[in-house]
């Protein structure tokens, strides 16, 4: 795969997901573990902002490595919410239980994608800045 295609795909996914945190916050509030301070709403909006900022980093060629690092850390950080959702939905309809269980391995696919972006965009790939000596 072209090394620039994966950051664009992940960036668009994260951008859309980040926007959805503001368009439909109740869904995201419900999957935040209630014991996290200060509130579920706080974590919904912070994660939405983080996803949008990470998307911007991934979509800009000069910041793709930083975006990959941010995405890698973000995908690890939100994994507990996926685990909580699976536990919380244990008594829901079978279709919802399936979705919650299916998210768990997909998160590892996202972690792998972010790691691949980091590996394919080394510090040497960045465009030269004015004043850089070759």
Provide structural commentary.
The chain crosses the membrane at residues 42-59, 66-86, 98-118. Keywords: Membrane, Transmembrane, Transmembrane helix. One of its GO terms (cellular component) is membrane. With 134 residues, the chain is mainly α. It has one domain (5-123). It is 72% helix and 0% strand. The protein has helices at 5-23, 25-31, 40-59, 64-77, 79-88, 94-120. Helix 1 (5-23) crosses helix 2 (25-31), helix 1 (5-23) packs antiparallel against helix 3 and helix 3 (40-59) packs antiparallel against helix 4 (64-77). The longest helix is centred in the C-terminal third of the chain and has 27 residues, at 94-120. The chain is globular and about 55 Å long. The protein starts with a helix and ends in a 14-residue tail after the last helix. The mean pLDDT is 89.
Task: Name the features.
134 residues; mainly alpha; 6 helices; 72% helix; globular; transmembrane
SSE layout and pairings?
Elements: H1 5-23, H2 25-31, H3 40-59, H4 64-77, H5 79-88, H6 94-120
Helix pairs in contact: 1-2, 1-3, 2-3, 3-4, 4-6, 5-6
Q: Characterize the overall form.
A: globular
**How much strand content do the residues show?**
under 5%
Total number of helices: 6
| Quaternary structure | single chain
- Number of E-type strands: 0
**What's the rounded overall pLDDT mean?**
89
Let me know the largest β-sheet: none
Total of domains: 1
Kindly state the percentage of residues in helix.
Answer: over 70%
Radius of gyration: 17 Å
Structure classification: mainly alpha
Low-confidence stretches: none
Query: Secondary-structure element order, as H and E?
Result: HHHHHH
- Taking the alpha carbons of the first and last residues, their distance comes to 29 Å
